[in-house]
């Protein structure tokens, strides 16, 4: 019977050969999942024999990762904003870059105890909306998505995080059919140019939902749709927060200005790339 350490070494080599960016870490996390251990224990107790049931499950998970399925999909979860979110192939894998939007919106909230109304276009897993509701205890939010499968994930995350009473989710196409007045509208829309998707890492191109990636020929289709809806649905002095792709700030800023938004603020992600644009509907 092989040891846990033997399995770790063999798995690391297999994932390295498959082109995974962090083969040893991935192998450790997959082993931890199968054994019910912490990652540290996997690293320390490698001399122990690998239980047969864990070995069988590990082989299945390892094959999925070698096929470049994202780790979050394999494990079924991802940490975002220090919260654990359930994920599935129906939603984008929440990424650290998107935490820039959460931080940027919170910077604009002078009173975190205010009774704000939030609207999240293309909510996916609900990670943006729910992270904000977690930080804004009197706020309520509505998440919109075209994917019923994504909405199931978002509703489940709201329940798991104890936020279901303040978070609603609705099937829809951006703001079509919506009415009301919101204090904050936010979105991480599809913004990748159609022709560029095939060249992305397999974890993204082959495994993440195309509808959450494809921004049309120039990557800006979603912004053209959602910015007018945001203008209509925002209260006076309401805040619009958008995640954008690398190099898109000038084009999206132009769309915001043309719609009447003012007070543009740019926020970089951890890599220094402008990742979020903030603007307000003038009072």
Q: Can you lay out the helices and strands and say which pair or pack?
A:
Layout (H helix, E strand, L loop, with lengths): L3 H14 L5 H13 L3 H6 L7 H15 L4 H5 L1 E4 L2 E4 L12 H9 L9 E5 L5 H9 L4 E6 L2 H13 L6 E5 L10 E6 L14 H4 L15 H13 E10 L5 H11 L2 E7 L5 E7 L3
Q: How much helix, percentage-wise, in residues?
A: 25-40%
Low-pLDDT runs of 5+ residues are none
Distance between the termini: 71 Å
Extended strand count: 9
Strand order of the largest sheet: 5-4-3-6-7-9-8
Largest sheet: 7 strands, mixed
Identify the overall geometry.
Answer: elongated
Derived structural class: alpha/beta
Strand content: 15-25%
Give the integer mean of the pLDDT values. Answer: 95
Tally of helical segments = 11
Rounded to an integer in angstroms, the radius of gyration calculated over CA atoms is 21 Å
Order of helices and strands: HHHHHEEHEHEHEEHHEHEE
Key features of this structure:
single chain; 283 residues; alpha/beta; two-stranded antiparallel ribbon; 11 helices; elongated
What does this protein look like?
There is one protein chain. This protein is α/β, with parallel strands linked by helices. It has eleven helices and nine strands. The strands form two sheets. A seven-stranded mixed beta sheet has the order 5-4-3-6-7-9-8, sandwiched between helices. α6 (99-107) packs parallel to α7. The longest helix has 15 residues, at 52-66. It is elongated and about 70 Å long. The relative contact order is 0.11.
